[in-house]
Amino acid sequence: MSDKTTSPIPNLSRRSLLKAGLATGLTAGAVGSARAGGDPLITEIQEWNRYLGDGVQARPYGTPSEFEAHVVRRDVEWLTASTESSVNFTPLHELDGILTPNGLCFERHHGGIAEIDPAAHRLMINGLVDTPLVFTMEDLKRFPRENRIYFLECAANSGMEWRGSQLNGCQYTHGMVHCVMYTGVPLKLILEEAGIKTNAKWVMPEGADSSAMTRSIPMEKALDDCLVAFKMNGEALRPEQGYPLRLVVPGWEGNMWVKWLRRIEVGDQPWHQREETSKYTDLLENGKARRFTWVMDPKSVITSPSPQAPVPHGKGPLVISGIAWSGNGRISRVDVSLDGGRNWTTARLDGPSLPKAMHRFYLDIDWDGSDLLLQSRAMDEHGFYQPTKNELRAERGENSIYHNNGIQTWHVKADGTAENVEVS
Amino acid sequence: REGGVLGLGREATPEEVAAWDIDVRPDGKGLPVGSGTVAEGEVLFADNCAVCHGDFGEGVGRWPVLAGGEDTLTDERPEKTIGSYWPYLSTVYDYVRRAMPYGNARSLSDDDVYALTAYLLYLNYIVEDEEFELSNENFLDHRLPNEENFIADDRAEEAHYARKGEPCMTDCKADPVTITMRARILDVTPGTVGD
């Protein structure tokens, strides 16, 4: 137990001395174990039980407890040449439910985080429209709004695992995903405001950052469920998530969710931009490459136990917890295997079940302490279920980079530790 | 104005559209008037690009390789470059103009970008003459070798998706499952377990 709030020596207060003493006492004894006379955490009056805590305005924008300081986004330095065109990872192993806290949503930038004054931000609609338009943020907040919960998964999530087990922890193997509630304007309404021409078949969002991200999106999708969003989980978008404006493309690969959205062009053909030719195309074993692989297929991962979340308690009741999602719609079912995929038990979905959103599943077991080869297998409402990694490799080879939704295996050992493994 | 339903926003001026709409399509739509030669591109590349991409587009450290890699797409470790992988030259022009040099985007003139695109064609042996000049007039005459190798998304036809229906629930594998690979052996994960 660290004591970050202890004063420097000259100002040592009685209170901080007490805190220091308490910390020593805690490390000496096993926390929570019964002793003669009882647990001192119960039999002795605790500091927080006696003294006043901080007042209401001590934390005008609250942050997590200092004891949760390890629950942070992390990166893998060797993955990319520079941190401004790079990625970090959501700490999935520490989270529960279906919503990701804004400060923990993984980041993927191609030119760093653009810091934009919303008063200086503009959204332009041009191309095959009756009237090219410019909107301010104030204009956009006068359109009718929608609130929708969607997952956003990077196309490259799990991409480092195509050749086999590489990174040890679901934060790293599966953490390029988050799920929040977006508030925004249906893209359809904005396009209708400009008036799309009859030969308009595609739209191309563009970002205001130094990478000027662009992707081609078919008009059918643009008019279906895309949002131009300015809020996430009730508050303004975080700068690293596109403040003040981003595109939401439900169920589709994260690259298309253009951040710092400044322009939408309407056209009759796709543009074949860098991010849909050089990148976000999926090389197959025969040398051909798929393009426009937009949808994120059904996928799941057990978040606990997992390599970063070992079992701390030995045999007995054990909560197996995980997440599942599908770009096709709702998750209808998640099966869990304890023996590497020989036998499966249908897990319990808990919490809201929303299309193209994260789902939470649990399987409560009585662990006998023997080795487990834990797997989860998601099914979506259209009957598509999550393939094994070997099934994917048989179809695609190992150089697709993107769209790895193969079943993950964790080897849980008798000591409760877990490892990322591949199985026969 | 026409089209408006709610009457929000205002009409974009032609100057505003021109300032932001700089994208170029494979059919040449969006190409600005201009030109540049391989020789000019070589100088620009040395001054603005080679520090990351190498003098010959070979890439420095982990920075992207821009040239070479022909006939490697079926190799165990493919090298995907403009010459070996990219389908369209328009993407080269568009991307360099919108996003390069990294950290100093939009600093090149339209003619600069033609010259750099010409030099990238040269580095990839798609043109061989140092005096070659690329312009909006002859841009469509030059195609990239891998254009035909991109296919539509046909994932739904893969065996594991095509079968749909009820998956196996019991005794799904004949033999006991064995571990074939462990992440810990590679040991490339940052930090330590539980940190």
Describe the structure.
- The complex is a heterodimer of chains A (424) and B (195).
- Chain A has eight helices and 24 strands.
- Chain A has 424 residues and is of the alpha+beta class.
- Chain A starts with 13 loop residues before the first helix and ends with a strand.
- In chain A, the strands form six sheets. Chain A has a five-stranded mixed β-sheet with strand order 5-4-13-8-9. In chain A, strands 6, 7, 10, 11 and 12 form a five-stranded antiparallel β-sheet that branches. Chain A has a five-stranded antiparallel β-sheet with strand order 19-18-22-23-24, with no helix packed on it.
- The relative contact order of chain A is 0.12.
- Chain A is 13% helix and 29% strand.
- Helix content of chain B is 28%, strand content 7%.
- In chain B, helix 2 (38-48) packs across helix 5 and helix 4 packs across helix 5.
- Chain B is of the alpha+beta class.
- The termini of chain B are far apart.
- Chain B has seven helices and five strands.
- Chains A and B meet through strand 1, strand 4, strand 5, helix 6 and strand 13 of A and strand 1, helix 1, helix 4, strand 4 and helix 6 of B.
- Strand 24 (418-423) of chain A pairs antiparallel with strand 5 (179-182) of chain B.
* DSSP helical segment count of chain A: 8
The fraction of residues in strands of chain A falls at 25-35%
What characteristic shape of chain B results from the CA principal axes?
Answer: extended
Helix-strand topology string of chain B: EHEHHHHEEHEH
Describe the biggest sheet of chain A? 5 strands, mixed
Low-confidence runs of chain B: none
**Secondary-structure-derived class of chain B:** alpha+beta
The gross shape of chain A turns out to be globular
Largest interface: which pair? A-B, 105 and 81 residues
Pfam families (chain A): Mo-co_dimer, Oxidored_molyb
Organism (chain A): Roseibium salinum
Cofactor (chain A): Mo-molybdopterin
Keywords (chain A): Metal-binding, Molybdenum, Oxidoreductase
